[in-house]
Amino acid sequence: MNIRLALPLALLLSVVAAGPAAAQPAGAAPGPKIEFDEYEFDLGEMYQDEEKSHVFGFSNIGDTPLIIKRTQTSCGCTAAIASEGPIAPGGRGEIRVSYNSKKTSGAQSKTVSVYSNAPDSVATLLVKAKVKTDVTYPSTVSFGKVARATPKEQSFEMIAEEGLSFEVVKVETDAPHFQASFKKNGKGPKQNASYNVAVKMLPAAPIGAINSRLKVYTNLPKKPMIEIPILAYVQGDLKVTPEAVNFGTFIPGKAAEVVVKVEAPEAHPIRVTGAKSSTPDVVATVTTIREGHAYEIHCTVVPTKIDGRLSGKLTIETSDPDEAKRDLPLIGFVKK
Predict the structure, then answer these.
(1) N- to C-terminal Cα separation, the chain
(2) Residue 20 falls within a domain, yes or no?
(3) Which of 193, 208, 267, 297: disulfide with 160, CB 3.0–4.6 Å?
């Protein structure tokens, strides 16, 4: 009699215990699980400096709350904003992805990594776009290395997209040692508007690295002014070799001496009046080989430098007012 009553009671208890599990949505995965409606989206055609967005919707197909911890994009031109707070089982959320084309052109593919508390933890989204260029022009105007007081000119073309009403209104630079001019070219076979822009470096350009800007003013509403960097390095009369004091990787107390040679032309004598290291880990000593024309700077690492990276600069001081100082990088690493 007792046995007959116990069996139905055990069966009843097992049915009650199984009730909550049976109430879960069909196909629910154990723990949180993220599933996107789509993992890839094509933004289509867009112009430079244009921004487009797309919302990636997702569901929590798991059986516990889903939390988006963070998102990480493959470049600074892409941003991603995720839904905040826990997403309940069966609930919905979204990731809004924005892409700014900036100065890119052609086919583009950018990824967004979505980190969550799901067991597989990372989901990857992909946005694509084809960036059209309304006006093509170089990313920089580079003169490279130029001898002092030597005029030099660089020119390039600005070509508009076919059918675009494009005009250059004015060009200018932000430095007095550069002059800019422009000239409209005849239209090509595809009737593209085209301009030739020239940038001239004047003899008064200072010695050393130059980083200036060329400003091109246009009739385009989205690009009323286009800035293009102007890069150059004006060399003085001093010849300095090597151009960096590199000790490489060395054992504590056994760094090899680096000798920097400084030479001045016969027609323009220049004295080296001193050499200073920006770090106490390096000692610099000047030796005169031929007064006004040839010098050596002996650079040594102090024995007390026993660990870590070596960095700083060597400053060479001279009698030339136009090239009173020349800085060289100091680099090296102590091997333990």
Answers:
(1) 84
(2) no
(3) 193
Tell me which of 209, 235, 261 is where a domain ends: 235
Residue 19 has pLDDT above 50, yes or no: no
Residue 275 class from Cβ within 10 Å (0-12 exposed, 13-18 middle, 19+ buried)? buried
In a domain, 90, yes or no: yes
pLDDT, position 209: 87
- Between 56-60, 234-238, 300-304, the lowest mean confidence (pLDDT) is in 234-238
Q: Which two tokens stand for residue 334?
A: 């102590």
**Token representation of residue 72:** 């990480």
Strand pairing category for 208-218 and 168-173: antiparallel
Average pLDDT over every residue of 241-265: 95
**Which pLDDT value is given to residue 11?**
33
For residue 192, being part of any structural domain is answered with yes
Residues 121 and 163 in one domain: no
What does pTM read for this prediction? 0.60
Same-domain pairing of 226 and 249: no
* Domain limits for position 103: 34-132
The angle subtended at Cα 156 by Cα 155 and Cα 158, nearest 5°, is 145
- Determine the Cα–Cα distance for residues 334 and 259; give it in Å rounded to an integer: 19
Q: How far is CA 325 from the centre of its chain?
A: 30
Q: Which of 206, 235, 264 lies at the terminal end of a domain, its last residue?
A: 235
In total, the chain counts a number of residues equal to 336
- The secondary element (H helix, E strand) that includes residue 44 is strand 40-47
89: its two tokens: 């089982």
Alpha-carbon distance of 189 to 328, in angstroms, equals 51
Clarify whether residues 82 and 152 are in a common domain. no
Classify residue 24: in a domain, yes or no.
no
Question: In the numeric block, which tokens belong to residue 205?
Answer: 């350009």
Spatial separation of the C-alpha atoms in residues 307 and 161, rounded to whole Å: 57
CATH number at residue 94: 2.60.40.10
Distance of CA 117 to the CA centre of its chain: 31
User: For the chain, what is the domain count?
Assistant: 3
154 shares its domain with 119: no
What 3-state class would DSSP assign to 233? Answer: strand
